[in-house]
Amino acid sequence: MFEPDFAGPLDWAAMYHGYGLQVVPAMHPSSGGQWKRPAIKWREHENDLVDGDTVVSWFPRTSNGQMGIVTGKCSGIFVLDLDTHKGPEALAWWRGLLAVENSDLDLETAIVTTGGGGKQYYFKTPDFWTPPTNKTAIGVDIRGQGGFVMAPPSMHESGREYAWDAGCAPWEVDILEAPQWLCDAIDKLIGGISSERGTQVERIPGPNNNAGGIVENFFGQVVDGREQLATKIIWAAVLDWWRECPIKPPPNESAEKCREVYQRYERKSKPRLYDAVTPRSILLEREGRGHTMFEEKWHYAIGKWHDKVAEAAQQPNPHKKITQENYDTVTGEIHGETLGGEVEEEPDLKNILSIGDWSMRDIPEPDRILGDFLTTTARVFLVGRTGLGKTLLGFAIAAAAASGTDFLAWKASRPMRVLYIDGEMPAELIKARAIDVIRRLGAVSIPAGNLMIFGRDIEAEARQVCPALPPFAPLNTDAGNAFLMALIKAVGGVDLIIFDNVMSLLEGDQKDELAWSAVLDLVSQLTVMRIGQLWLDHTGHNNDRQYGSSTKAWRFDAVGVMAPIKEDDQTEDDGPGGATGFTLSFDHPGKARRRTPENWKQFQPMTVRLLDDEWIWEPLSDAKKQGKGGGLKPSAQAQYDALLDAVVVSGTPGQTTRAVWLAECQRKGLVEAFEIDDDGAERKRKTAGFRGRMSELATMKYIGVNHDIINILK
Fold first, then answer.
1. According to a count of CB atoms within 10 Å of the terminal CB, is the N or C end of the chain lower?
2. By C-alpha distance, which of 291, 232, 282, 288 is closest to 262?
3. Does 369 map to a domain?
4. Domain count within the chain
């Protein structure tokens, strides 16, 4: 039995070869450009499986572990690639097909979860059918003859590895021969589905797609077939250039012309990645559809200046019939084929910038970690003076995100992978914080590996376990950037990183804008990787503003300012030996870019206390409006009345327990009753309002809270 946990690159490659799959070395994301491609010339290996000695020569012990499978005749398989992470259409098509053809049951075959979150289904090719290699607009891609897929344990640009689903690896399940109905469904899909979600568009035949290649959205931007578009624009431009002067241009003029023509391609192309702060040119380059790809094609076309270019340029009616050589989607080689049709007109800038185009853009919903406060693309600062509880709050947020537990005003969507990077605490304090976090979660557990903590004292041990990990360095340096990227890769990718804190993790004077600006590339890079960021920082001398330049917050979505609870608002539990307490506000000088009329409560000013190992919060606005000694809100008054009844039940004058009070509130319908199968997280959710009103009553001196004992003060 193959043991993946103990296998090196050659072991993986030998395993694939043993199952008859044509495994080849692949590029690494760090190489930039089009990295989802073989690292060798592989066209000669499309039809026949190589021998074992060749595989050994391809994967030396120093291999970086990147590998992929050549699909088609050489492997006897094709791969159905579902981009389920980019939209619902791919999964809807697949589930609908299974519902009709297979009693809503998934097919038992080899299945990969990609580093980007998609799914890849492996199928043996039946004798009666030839699988195409094609992309569709709904995110269902087919890798058939001449196709290629990255394979586990290769690293994705997100920092996550490709991985076989449990029970669905080649050593665990046979690769299923594709049933007739699946082949028919693929033929039908390739034959006529739109490439722009929800929009009927015209498909222009391309070299690898007889039924469709270049696909435009409503505003004429190409969203699929951008490599074909580049080939088409380049070929037309080079032909026109030859007609102007048949003398081959020198390299410097060719490079300048390439840049000029590229601008036309860039305006016509629409990236699939979305990042509001990253230029289109960089997004295209990250997708392998940018200037590097374009330049390769340009140099190839110029290299044919005296033969194929000259021959094609002398043909009549050139703009109605452009000779385009058959484009190879992986190597960039062109073979010889005629492609009809004119080069598309450049899109109108007014259309691209119009409100209509913005309203139709295909932008995915945020992947929420804790409500709209923290998502996988959010950049958040929490700032406060020393000793106020930033680290306690940071660890509590980390635990809630890692366990998928609601926290304060923010609702968790699911357990997330969290990396906590501390720059100043010694190992014994980190251990104490970890013990506290686990205790405060109670019955709620954190899935194994979901919350990882890195501190300076553990660096030597971490590098001993992972020799590839570079030395820890300030994060506003190239060495620090390299360290963090390597750490993310080594732990298998994360959804959220908490940086504690700016002062200890960066070098230089934080009053100087240059010290912080040096880390902004890293901030942007993490957003592209869809990793949420929470940076803890100190306040300045006035304790209500972030330390240093105000420009630090310019690229951030939210800045929460922590401040001490005012003396008039303190309870008997606040202060030395009592609760850890502070106010948290996203109002000026903080900020909340993601605040809307629908989610404003997530960003309202609040009072936060850690009381009896439990985090309690209440809206700060309510306490301010009531004032010390003021009246109660109806909900708090009803809970106080229930307390009076609970005191009668307890039989102790002026005193009862929290449990008796809660039971009385549930009896009166003020708190949702517990069910037998409620877990700790569900009980915590049901009692959130009860705890908030208890904190309100304590703040207004109606009650005193001593662990589980409640005393009536008024």
1. N
2. 291
3. no
4. 4
